[in-house]
């Protein structure tokens, strides 16, 4: 589990330190307060150059975003992202920007954009008795391999399956969702997924892959008919995706950007149940949100399972590049709800 994060000169953040992270860690704050950059920093610290490639892809609306990976690139020429894991130790990524496109020392890979190139050095410091914790991630191999899904999906799964970054702002493609569900069924997980969805659609009998005009798609099957999941509303489609992603996990961490997108209260409640179940299976969720209602659902779930010690919330603010993060423990979130809610408005 990721316990702490340190960021220097990444995008809008000049300095940030986060300590005391838990199985469910929530970042809240105003737009532009650095929440998404914290998610990106964790990802980069663990995944290196391929993560940098992905976070640029997540922001196609800014064609020059590469040169702004560094905070105030006119002044600063490097950035550091580092995380501390309770089992594997410290993973640290150094990013250097060189106008001439050259670098000194070893690097894991490079990307070019405009007049800048970004080079990545990974420094991995395993804890004692975990010498092989990062086996297969040799420096200088041209990247830290991952299973990068189609660009439209805006999803990333690390090569060892121990970290996912899920951007729910855009639908996953039908083909990718079919493949995910097929894998889940092959692993005997159909019943688990169906159970979550039936809490929203009581009359649902099954979830099946049917073929229409030669194209497979996922259908919600009712007693008298079936409906493609893609036509059942964005909330249900997003919930189905999250259910599949989480039931397929076996440890590791999931990074989530605003999982309340497209959700209404009943589906938010099911997502909260997913997160609690994941925490009980040692799957860490690190997420951002703008919804006090969603926080309430998570809090209720963690209270019902006596798991408040597995929950923490950080109210983040950014002032001229310096990010402050006020930590609120799971036990204190209910008391501080008014303050948290005011910060989200």
Offer a quick outline of the entry.
With 345 residues, this protein is of the alpha+beta class.
What structural category arises from helix and sheet content? alpha+beta
Please report which band the strand proportion falls in: under 5%, 5-15%, 15-25%, 25-35%, 35-45% or over 45%. Answer: 25-35%
Instruction: Give the strand order, joined by hyphens, for the main sheet.
Output: 8-9-10-14-15-3-16-17
Shape: globular
Mean pLDDT: 80
The helix/strand order is: EEEHHEEEEEEEHHEEEHEHEHEEH
Query: Could you give the distance between the termini?
Result: 31 Å
List segments where confidence is low: pLDDT < 50 over at least 5 consecutive residues. 100-116, 126-152
Helical residues, percent: 25-40%
- Number of contiguous helices: 8
What assembly state would you assign to the polypeptide chains in this entry? single chain
| Number of beta strands | 17
Give the biggest beta sheet.
Answer: 8 strands, mixed
- Cα Rg: 20 Å
Helix/strand layout:
Blueprint: E1 2-10, E2 13-18, E3 24-28, H1 35-47, H2 49-57, E4 78-85, E5 89-98, E6 110-113, E7 116-125, E8 146-148, E9 155-158, E10 163-167, H3 174-186, H4 190-198, E11 206-212, E12 215-221, E13 226-228, H5 234-247, E14 253-257, H6 265-280, E15 284-288, H7 292-304, E16 311-319, E17 322-329, H8 337-344
Parallel strand pairs: 3-15, 3-16, 10-14, 14-15
Antiparallel strand pairs: 1-2, 1-4, 4-5, 5-7, 6-7, 8-9, 9-10, 11-12, 12-13, 16-17
């Amino acid at each position: 589990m990721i316990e702490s994060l340190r960021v220097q000169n990444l995008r809008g953040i000049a300095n940030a330190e986060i300590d005391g992270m838990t199985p469910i860690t929530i970042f809240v704050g105003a737009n532009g307060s650095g929440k998404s950059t914290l998610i990106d920093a964790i990802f980069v610290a663990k995944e290196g150059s391929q993560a940098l490639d992905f976070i640029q892809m997540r922001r196609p609306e800014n064609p020059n975003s590469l040169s702004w990976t560094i905070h105030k690139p006119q002044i600063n020429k490097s950035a550091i992202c580092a995380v501390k894991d309770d089992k594997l130790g410290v993973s640290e990524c150094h990013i250097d920007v060189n106008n001439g496109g050259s670098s000194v020392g070893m690097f894991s890979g490079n990307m070019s954009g405009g007049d800048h190139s970004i080079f990545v050095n990974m420094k991995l410091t395993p804890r004692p008795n975990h010498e092989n914790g990062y086996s297969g991630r040799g420096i200088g191999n041209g990247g830290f391999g991952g299973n990068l899904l189609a660009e439209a999906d805006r999803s990333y799964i690390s090569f060892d399956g121990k970290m996912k970054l899920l951007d729910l702002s855009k639908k996953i493609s039908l083909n990718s969702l079919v493949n995910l569900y097929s894998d889940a069924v092959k692993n005997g997980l159909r019943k688990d997924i169906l159970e979550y969805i039936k809490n929203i659609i009581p009359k649902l009998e099954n979830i099946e892959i049917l073929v229409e005009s030669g194209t497979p798609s996922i259908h919600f099957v009712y007693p008298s008919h079936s409906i493609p999941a893609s036509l059942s509303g964005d909330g249900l489609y997003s919930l189905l995706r999250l259910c599949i992603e989480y039931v397929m996990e076996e440890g590791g961490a999931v990074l989530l950007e605003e999982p309340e997108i497209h959700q209404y209260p009943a589906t938010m409640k099911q997502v909260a149940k997913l997160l609690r179940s994941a925490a009980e299976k040692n799957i860490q969720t690190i997420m951002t949100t703008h919804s006090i209602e969603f926080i309430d659902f998570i809090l209720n779930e963690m209270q019902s399972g006596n798991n408040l010690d597995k929950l923490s919330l950080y109210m983040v603010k950014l002032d001229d590049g310096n990010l402050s993060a006020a930590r609120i423990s799971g036990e204190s979130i209910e008391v501080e709800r008014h303050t948290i809610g005011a910060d989200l408005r």
